[in-house]
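Recap from last week: sequence in, structure out.
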Amino acid sequence: MKQLIYIFLSTCLLYSCIKPDYEFENYESKIVIDGWIENGKFPKVLLTRSAAYFSEIDSASIRDYVLTTARVEVSDGENTEVLTLRPNNAYFPPYVYVATKLKGEAGKTYQLKVNYYDLEATATTTIPEPVTLDSSWFELKENSDSFGFIWLKFTDDIATKNYYRTLTKVQSKDDKYIANFFPNFNDKFFNGQDIEIALYKGNKSSTDKQDELNYMLGDTISLMFTVIDEQSYEFWNTFHKEITNAGNPFAATNARVKSNVKNGLGIWCGYGSNYYRIIAN
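Predicted structure tokens:
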């Protein structure tokens, strides 16, 4: 799951090229949430705070924006748990708030509340029912004997408006699940149909730079195939558009990333997930 600080850093790099002749005054920092909860798993939340557009940013000051003393609470309407901060070097920032009792269940709605001094941010998400794949496989791309992509085949539920998101992790190369290249899609054009979709590897998802968007023959790939709610889809869809267009002035969307967080920024996302193991052979 790509970290929200990526957009923040891209903005800073753009500013380094153009010195503005104006400044924003009275900027109020907000809580930035990168949180998720899956069926059968404990919720995880990463917290930072936002900075003014023209703030001075370097490798040392970035950690000053990490929130490690917040109170983070998750509730399903009946049960509530205060999450505990733990170090985790698989993420940046390398601190994650985690639960130890409350696990996600498909069909349930979860409220998140974050308090940091006089700031409070809240968000709500739902874990949709997971969709089961009919099959998944690896296929070499044309004119290549080493690189390829993976295919998915499944049947979309005609009775439900579905929003999908895919992530993969390559064994011995990735330490966490990485969103695929163009990972978000809905059933607008195939509602109730049998569908086959090709997935390309997400950018920078492994240390192998020979072919960033393709999996390699011999890879063991873990696929996280998820269903998310509409608000989560709107966030991830606009987020990845900004990531894709970052640094390209001719492709900028000039649109805000659509957060589902009240009095803050970011995403609190529920995943209805199924996992699959694909061997690239």
